[in-house]
User: What shape does this take?
Amino acid sequence: MTTHIFSGPLSMFGAKVQIAALEKGIAFELVMVPFDRDDNYSPKHPEVLRINPKGQVPVLIDDAVELFDSTQIFEYLEDRHPQPALWPAETAARARARQLEHRSDEIFFPQVVKLFGLQEAMQSPPAVEACAACARFYGQLDTLLADDRAFLAGDYGYADIAFYMAHVFADRKGAGMTDETPRLVAWRDRVGERPAVRAVVDPMMDFLASQGRGVPAFLRR
Assistant: This one.
């Protein structure tokens, strides 16, 4: 059977899964679900509704396995296709990498989500605080890269994929990086040069441009 990934044109979490599958060389069929101008995925795809009680992408169907949630899909892909590895092999290093991936999704990205509804009030206290929280997170990761490591958890992997995509959305919403975190900016450039990342991010930016929406400066072609 063919592996299917259900995503959407502006799904940050779906993009994570697409990039990981491409990095692992997995052949898959991409199903883009309907999307409307209010940033909703509507009408809901019946397979997404059937598999995910939350009705959200990404959803993976691989033979008899049906999964939702990008992190759970990461774990399955690593078990199903162990090479090339995208989690570190050593136990403690793998735990740290998983924690970084989790922090990207559950600590950093919620600050970005706050900005979605504040685009017309970016000087308001909630928007200023959300941007400050993102900046503090950038500072922490810049420090993490201070020992000359090229990627967040040592070798390139899921933690890098997750945070790169979260940062794309942060930049879109007004919480981009600055020259105060030069190591992290250099990391962003390294990740952004990867063919799997470009294969997913470029169409997303083309979609934004086609709708007259802003494209982050570092992704303009």
Summary: DSSP finds eight helices and four strands in the chain. The chain has a mean pLDDT of 95. The longest strand covers residues 3-7.
